[in-house]
Q: What sequence folds into this?
């Protein structure tokens, strides 16, 4: 049976490919989403992708994933470090949660070292570039 995965991206990730490519690489968000869908097909995962710069929209998307998705791969961007609301929404989600950060947040500014989402995440992938999304999907595919 196919698992459904929501790949959720937060603020400024819509600017991938042009925003600080020395940190975030040259792939666009469309490239990342396409790679996730292609790998999802290979792994028998149904992959749905969404992005918002709005904290409230992200909370609503997480809430709507309850009962419709088996797992969430989330890169909440800067909201990882500030949003209790996103953490609370994730705490209501019964499925697997994998947190992804393109850069190694632990080698950056001190305020980026803490993620509220990590307290709920079943796994955290940092510093692997956009490959982190694919690593997350591979992990989800191997989980019962």
A:
């Amino acid at each position: 049976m196919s698992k459904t995965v929501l790949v959720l991206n937060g603020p400024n990730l819509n600017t991938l490919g042009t925003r600080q490519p020395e940190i975030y690489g040259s792939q666009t968000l469309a490239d990342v989403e396409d790679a996730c869908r292609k790998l999802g097909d290979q792994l028998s995962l149904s992959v749905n992708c969404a992005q918002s710069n709005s904290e409230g929209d992200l909370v609503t998307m997480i809430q709507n994933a309850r009962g419709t998705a088996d797992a969430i791969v989330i890169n909440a961007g800067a909201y990882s470090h500030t949003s209790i609301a996103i953490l609370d929404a994730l705490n209501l989600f019964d499925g697997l949660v994998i947190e992804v950060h393109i850069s190694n947040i632990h080698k950056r500014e001190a305020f980026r070292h803490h993620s509220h989402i990590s307290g709920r995440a079943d796994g955290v992938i940092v510093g692997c570039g956009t490959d982190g999304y694919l690593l997350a999907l591979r992990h989800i595919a191997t989980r019962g």
About this structure: Residues 75 and 129 are 12 Å apart (CA to CA). Residues 29-42 form the longest helix (14 residues). The mean pLDDT is 91. Strands lie at 3-9, 45-51, 71-75, 96-101, 123-126.
